User: What shape does this take?
Amino acid sequence: MRFLLFFWNAVFLTVMLVPASVPAAAPATPQEKLFAEIKVWAAGQLATTPDLVEVPPVDARLKIPHCAGKSTLSFPFSSKDTVRAHCTDPEWQAYIRIAITTPRNGVFAARALPGGKVLTDADLAVGRINMAAADIFDDRRHVIGKTLKRPLSPGDPILARDIDDLQVVLRITRPVKAGEPLSTANYRPESLARDMTPMGAALGEQSTQGARAKRDLQAGQILMAGDLAQLRKIVITRRDVEIGQVIEPGMVETVERSVSESLENLITDASALAAYEFSRNIKAGEPLRRGDLKPALLVRRGQSVLVTLATDSGLELSFRAEALHDARMGEQISLKNQDSGKIIQGIVSGKGTARAL
Assistant: This one.
């Protein structure tokens, strides 16, 4: 009986040849069957799932013989990164490397997507994907504006091989004045190879939603992200205000404006500003930034404070107490009961009010 020895990245396969009268199996099918068996078996041994068991690509010259029965599988080494498959009909054995992948966040199709689709934020979702890290994108920004090579079903992961190395830029088709809204009336989408795309270009039509031109734009130029000012809801002052003034109704309002700076720096909700004061002088109409505000000084030393005390029975009692020092919203304050003279502690809950501890 003769032996044929195959080598594959230091993993070997030993095959005992059978008489010529035994018909040969169809190429590749036995290999696919064996790898499927290995995934299921290894998953059970390693307390994982078959989709997390990877069989790395093998040398094209490697051929797995047909096995009339089910192969006997085992871990021949302590590392458990190699599976030994043993077949008795005909007699052969193979040593196959495996790898266990760990679920991680990845980008997948949020809905059915046709081939040729230019990907937008609405097309994508991020969640746990059971695939090797090298095969998936972990940030949707890496694929927005790129072209899909093939159709995807909802939930399919976006793989590097699914993406054309093209990016959709926007070329201005007619002059646009600063402050004008951007739309298909003044630009056209155009696909460019990645290495031909200017750094900082606005990618995909979704980048212009709610945007206006920050500066005058000329026909023929590629629209850059820095050319766009987004129309956003922000909070502005309705009149001139001075440092230390506590915000009162009518002092501020919410408006829609084109803004170029990050919304993280701007105040976008006026409903929660009643307990704040201005930290600088601000002119009417100026956008409010986070650094412009600080918790207001709502109680001053010597002031009579309305104190609320919650009892064990669920009732609330209210009484007056003298503030022994200044305090801002949410700060602890020492109070002197005006009737008993007893010193108590409270938390400032509003202008001239506190909650007893």
Remarks:
- Helices lie at 29-45.
